Structure formats: structure tokens, C-alpha cells
Amino acid sequence: MQTDSIPDKRDTPACLILRTDGASRGNPGHAAAGIVIETPDGEIVAHGKLYLGVMTNNQAEYRALILGLKSVARYHPALVRVYMDSDLVVKQMRGVYKVRHPDLEPLWREARQLVSALPAVTFDQTPRAQNALADRLANEALDERDQR
Fold it and tell me: How many angstroms from the chain centroid is the CA of residue 121?
């Protein structure tokens, strides 16, 4: 996944917002991820998109989260606020729901490991309209794949 350049640690805000979206055309179907990293005042620090292959929508949501967590970790923020439209993934990451599907468990474990390497991470479910850029990036990756 291509993202913008990484700033010097001195220039990184203490808090970063991570917006992720996984999209799947079919369930399972061709899937992609979109991520956006921004400051609390809305300045975009980095963004990226990636075609993921064939998977379920929930798997794509987790893959997008994992890509986003790996990307945001490069900035060494003190706090990461994650916003995504997947209620299931948000509640699983918060520990409200157990992960029961065997295909999601390894993805959840990887995401939890990435979260544990960061100082503080919060998860919030947000409507798709408030996550529009991440959604658009995921769909662009799918459209680009379809045009090949």
C-alpha cells in the first residue's frame, strides 16, 4: 500500500485519527481496503488503498484495520482513535463480542497484537458517510482492479 511520507517524530501530533474501511463486492468477493490517517483537526497525514483478493466483507474490514494500524504505528503517536463503519469489528476489538468465526480469529489476533504495541488505542463505530474517504479509497482499489 502506498502512503505519504512519514514525518519526523518531533512533527507528529500526540493523537492521530485512523479511519479504515474494507469493501467486498460479493460475500465472499473481490475485496479492498482504504485507510486514512489524519490529525484531530482533520489534516490528512497519509492515505492509501490496496486490493486484497477474494474474501468476505468482515475479513476485508479486519485487513483494512491491520494495514491501518501498521501504517499509523510508523508515526509513533501517543493515542490512536480508530473509526470504522463495521460495528462487528469495533465490538470485537473492544471485547464486547467474542470472535467466533475461525476465519476472523487470526485477523483479530494480529490486530490485537498491533494494538498492544501502541501506547493507547480507542475504537468507535462511525456511519459510512463520516468515513467517506476511506470508503472511497477501498472502492477505487476495487474499480482499478476491475479495469485491468
Answer: 13
